[in-house]
Design goal:
alpha/beta; Rossmann fold; 45% helix; binds magnesium ion; binds adenosine-5'-diphosphate; P-loop_NTPase; 17% strand
């Protein structure tokens, strides 16, 4: 059964979508089967994976409101190598429409259950807020990946997110764990970056990924070609950093198993 990871942070522009696309492609490069769920009405993960968001016949919206089976809304990407459950602006309406539906927080969880065996990893790209869509992602996930920029206000936003995760764990999804905090757009020459980074490690210890994602122009360019950096320029620093992150994630995942067999 695939591991479901919600990539979330209520702050916009911290690298959630970039992380989803490039981690998905890196996991594929290491022969894992991956589904990327775009849960942001902006549809950036959809476009960045080479899927035209305005030409979708079916999207995650239809799945959430029960208009279509998840298998029919998932599509293969042409070059990125993973499957995607795409999104577009229709999803904005889901936030309101979900409120009137039964099990409104669990609809994504129930849908993903049907396809979980087909994948090794399912990554969910969350919108930049702690709304009903994000609640659905957290209710469906086994782990949360939190991308963050090491800047002054980063830690402040983090406590609200950790509180939310705690509440979801209590009432909806007891198995939910913080899988890891990911430092993105990292610039080691910046003193503040280093300070915030040190504070993070102090608070969260080994839940901070060792891999850091550098600021890299290829990561910013690749989406306009509808490609992950791994495909657009696989030797770029950005692509290599996400490949290292995939390795770290896989090792973390496989560790308990090794311990049992040892
Ligand atoms: P979010 O999904 O959290 O809103 P994005 O992944 O869309 O954030 O990133 C915000 C912007 O920063 C995008 O234009 C993206 O291309 C750029 N970006 C993200 N990560 C990097 C990076 N490591 N280096 C350079 N640009 C980046
Ligand atoms: Mg995004």
């Amino acid at each position: 059964m695939g591991k479901i990871l919600a990539v979330t942070n209520q702050k916009g522009g911290v690298g959630k979508t970039t992380t989803c696309i490039n981690l998905a492609a890196s996991l594929v490069a290491t022969k894992r089967r991956v589904l990327l769920v775009d849960l942001d009405p902006q549809g950036n993960a959809t476009m960045g994976s080479g899927v035209a968001k305005n030409e979708l016949e079916r999207s995650v919206y239809d799945v959430l409101i029960g208009e279509c089976e998840i298998e029919r809304a998932i599509q293969a990407t042409e070059q990125a190598g993973y499957d995607i459950l795409p999104a577009n602006g229709d999803l904005t309406a889901a936030e309101v429409e979900l409120l009137d539906l039964s099990s409104k927080e669990k609809r994504l969880a129930y849908a993903l259950r049907k396809v979980q065996d087909n994948y090794d990893f399912i990554l969910i790209d969350c919108p930049p807020s702690l709304n009903m869509l994000t609640v659905n992602a957290l209710a469906a996930a086994n782990g949360v990946v939190i991308p963050m920029q090491c800047e002054y206000y980063a830690l402040e936003g983090l406590s609200a997110l950790i509180d939310t995760i705690g509440r979801i764990t209590e009432v909806l999804n007891p198995g939910l764990e913080i899988e890891g905090l990911l430092r993105t757009m990292y610039d080691p020459r910046n003193g503040l970056t280093n300070d915030v980074s040190a504070q993070l490690t102090q608070h969260f210890g080994d839940r901070v990924y060792r891999t850091v994602i550098p600021r890299n122009v290829r990561l910013a360019e690749a989406p306009s070609h509808g490609l992950p950096a791994m495909v657009y320029d696989k030797q770029s620093k950005g692509a290599l950093a996400y490949l290292a992150l995939a390795g770290e994630l896989i090792r973390k995942q496989e560790k308990p198993r090794q311990a049992i067999s040892a």
